[in-house]
């Protein structure tokens, strides 16, 4: 059985260093596959929130409330940063459409320029767009967090079995 499960442990690339090895460390310390899967699912879904700077706080609150490993959820949150930036404008556009707002000319470059010039002014200018984007994102989180959890749970349970067979 262990030979069939070893593909999870093969390789030495980014997947192994950033996902498999930290999961093995948590498993060795007695964290259940279910807790790891929930932390990863929340790190993934909370990590793409369109409120720049909000993801660390959201993940910390989720880890505290659900008694998840805070380091694990923040690692996944950090890994999601490029996707968060990539989804920022689509979430803003979806928020505009959902709430019947006129389409704005907001771009990543214009957001960067606003923040660099005066971050308090940027918050004021982008407040409505951000709130609407967060509402759309919250809808998607509610739909996606449990499917992501179930997708991660199987491989993490196999990883836990590998760990116990390897002892």
Précis, in short:
This protein is mostly helical and 167 residues long.
Fold and architecture overview:
With 167 residues, the chain is mostly helical. It has one domain. The chain is 79% helix and 0% strand. The chain is built from eight helices and no strands. Helix 3 packs antiparallel against helix 8. The N terminus is likely disordered.
| Overall pLDDT confidence | 87
Q: What's the helix-strand series?
A: HHHHHHHH
Helix- and strand-based class?
Answer: mainly alpha
Cα shape: elongated
- What low-confidence regions span 5 or more consecutive residues with pLDDT below 50? 1-5
How many separate helices?
A: 8
Give the end-to-end Cα distance, rounded to a whole number of Å.
Answer: 14 Å
* Helix content, binned percent: over 70%
> What percentage of the residues does DSSP assign to strands (E)?
under 5%
Oligomer: single chain
What is the radius of gyration?
19 Å
Tally of domains: 1
- Largest beta-sheet characterization: none
Secondary structure elements and pairings:
Layout: H1 2-5, H2 14-28, H3 33-46, H4 54-66, H5 70-79, H6 81-98, H7 108-117, H8 119-166
